[in-house]
Amino acid sequence: MSLPLLVPTAGGTASPSPRSQADALASTGGVKRTGGGDAIGPTTLLCASGRGGSGTTLLSALLAVAAAGEGHRVLLIDADDFVGPLAMTLGVSPRATWQDLRGGRATPADVATPVSATLTLVAGGAARRATEGAPALTAAERKACLRRLGSLTEGMDLVVIDCGSRLESVLAAITPHSGERLMAIASGSDPVGLAATYALCKAVAARHGALPVEVLVNRLEGSDATRCFDAIDTGARQFLGLSLRLAGAIPADPTLDAALRKGMPFPDAAVGSPAAVAAHDVVTRALTARPLSRSGV
Description:
The protein is an alpha/beta fold and 297 residues long. 36% of the residues lie in helices and 17% in strands. Helix 6 (191-207) crosses helix 7.
């Protein structure tokens, strides 16, 4: 399946076939270190929320497809080890999930599913090759499996990780390296939603204080999105000493929602939609921005 561009683009270079990109992922690599010991890696967006239903799966897919449509090589990882909705969203059938890395049932190359010439998915959800009655992943096993996916990031321009709303998934996915940032997704401006996003920022900052944190507002735009961000940022500055940055805002898009509910393939439903155009702007800024410090400066 070939993904269309979400917005018109000019120029572009030839891209490898889906098969050739997936084959190339067998090479080792991932996050490297400079001579001074600083970890470096591709731009990595950890999409997470403080409560379920905030839209991390939709926004992760929009960001990944937008970048891939511009010719960037993108690795999209579904960190959900229960459902793993991204494979269904993108209309692909993976041979294995990243849980199959446990116990050597699969290699990183086995769990790399080509979606288009420039987009590769690592599916989440239950293990496909698990033995009967296999125990659930422990926190240490979850982190070890996700760390093994580092070999797939070699040569990638962008890595997008859908961490969902579970803090353990976020913490397991953090590498960390200089190109990595948390995209805290805030959906709505109700007090509970704002508090949930603030709590996510607080929990991650307590464990990974050097990780840049940005807020991506979902289902709002304009001044409403700005007020939502300001409420979270004010609390973070006052109580955490943490200055956030507004990554952007994705507007509510009833047409896109309706198309997806009817079963239209995600790339077809998204192309040219207001949400897709906004996601394109967000990912363009993310790919061109300098690495941020915790202060957001």
